[in-house]
UniProtKB/TrEMBL annotation:
Coiled coil: none annotated. Pfam families: His_kinase. Gene3D superfamilies: Histidine kinase-like ATPase, C-terminal domain. The keyword Transmembrane helix applies. The lineage of its organism: Bacteria, Pseudomonadati, Pseudomonadota, Gammaproteobacteria, Lysobacterales. It comes from the Bacteria. The keyword Ion transport does not apply. SUPFAM superfamilies: ATPase domain of HSP90 chaperone/DNA topoisomerase II/histidine kinase. InterPro entries: Bact_2-comp_sensor_kinase, HATPase_C_sf, HATPase_dom, Sig_transdc_His_kin_internal. Keywords: Kinase, Membrane, Transferase, Transmembrane, Transmembrane helix. This is Histidine kinase. GO terms for molecular function: kinase activity. The chain crosses the membrane at residues 12-36, 42-67, 79-99, 111-135.
């Protein structure tokens, strides 16, 4: 049964076989120009080239058999050297016989001369064998390299998806916990509204195609659904403002990139302030990169390390950015000043959805 790569093998074999022998024939013809006046010698060269070309097919089947059997390279080349010499002797004998028939003369035939002349043909076939094994080795190395890169991309993609799916249960758990708190505090109408908003958010989330990224516009729509739920919980204590440029709206960002950052801001800052606070989300293009800032009022300026340790939000976001863009292509920085805490993201400017990690230039 033919293997799936049989067409590729045939496509690559024939151009190399015909092109290589054509080049060899051209070189031989140029070298034979000084003897062009001797028709007998020219005929002998032509016959020798033809028989060598046919002999290379016999050698091809031998080389392919040795390669498929996994015979060590040195041993396989040794076999080919012996067979090449035998084929060289056969080519020399055929050349002599054809030369005798073509000239209608009786030329002396000496075995010692035939065995000596066979060395030239044998060396040509030896070179053909070495080239065959060299090409096969190169193809094997390239196949292994491609397979390794594919496996690495698959592993990175699986890790990225694991991080992505880790975020969603975290978000859903916190939302369900908020609904539970509303029920316990005897606020059934608000709980019902939150459930309706959560259903709308789920529909919005699940309607996205199976890609790693979405436009910032779509990501902000999901964020707005989430903030609508949180506004029901916090009322006037939660204020949100957006400052997003039109160009930034069309840029691609990882799905669920902003929600964990905003959740951190609400949980570890706004919720702890009796008067609440404001969250500001801004985005713009700068130096062919996407700059996103999420800033919030805080009850006190905690250390950056303290914020980094809060749940899976920041750590998971960093891990996702590293998997998706590479260790140095995307950055997440934290800063605090004048009662405000800010998370700053700088991402590569990408306008097409990333379906697979192989699409990301590295």
């Amino acid at each position: 049964m033919p293997t799936p790569d049989a067409p590729k093998r045939l496509v690559s074999f024939w151009p190399l076989q015909i092109g290589g022998w054509a080049l060899y024939a051209l070189t031989t013809a140029i070298a034979s120009v000084p003897y062009s006046h001797t028709g007998t010698e020219v005929f002998a060269v032509v016959v020798e080239l033809g028989t060598s070309f046919l002999a290379s097919f016999l050698l091809y089947f031998l080389c392919r058999y040795l390669w498929r059997k996994g015979v060590p390279l040195f041993r396989a080349l040794s076999y080919c050297v012996v067979v090449s010499y035998v084929l060289g002797v056969a080519c020399t004998i055929v050349t002599r016989l054809m030369q005798m028939l073509w000239t209608n003369t009786t030329l002396p035939f000496d075995w010692s001369i035939a065995l000596t002349e066979a060395i030239g043909v044998s060396l040509t076939l030896d070179g053909w064998s070495a080239l065959y094994f060299g090409i096969k080795h190169y193809q094997t190395v390239e196949q292994q390299r491609t397979k390794l890169l594919s496996m690495e991309a698959t592993a990175r993609e699986a890790q990225l998806l694991a991080l992505h799916y880790q975020l969603q249960p975290h978000f859903f758990f916190n939302t369900l916990n908020a609904i539970s708190s509303l029920v316990v505090s005897n606020q059934p109408l608000l709980a019902t509204e939150v459930i309706a908003r959560l259903a709308a958010l789920l529909r919005n989330t699940l309607s996205f195609p199976d890609t790693h990224t979405v436009t910032l516009r779509d990501e902000l729509a999901v964020v707005d659904e989430y903030l609508t739920i949180e506004r029901i919980r916090f009322g006037s204590r939660l204020k949100v403002s957006f400052d997003v440029s039109d160009e930034a709206n069309d840029a691609q960002v990882p799905r669920f990139l902003l929600q964990p950052l905003i959740e951190n801001a609400i949980r570890h800052a706004i919720a702890l302030r009796p008067e609440g606070g404001e969250i500001t989300i801004s985005a713009r293009l700068a130096e062919q990169r996407l700059q996103i800032d999420v800033a919030n009022d805080t009850c006190e300026l905690e250390a950056t390390d303290s914020y980094q340790s809060h749940g899976v939000g920041l750590a998971n976001t960093r891990a996702r950015l590293g998997q998706l863009y590479g260790a140095h292509d995307a950055t997440l920085m934290l800063s605090g000043e004048n009662g405000r805490f800010m998370v700053s993201l700088r991402l590569p400017l990408i306008t097409e959805p990333i379906v697979s990690l192989s699409m990301v230039g590295r």
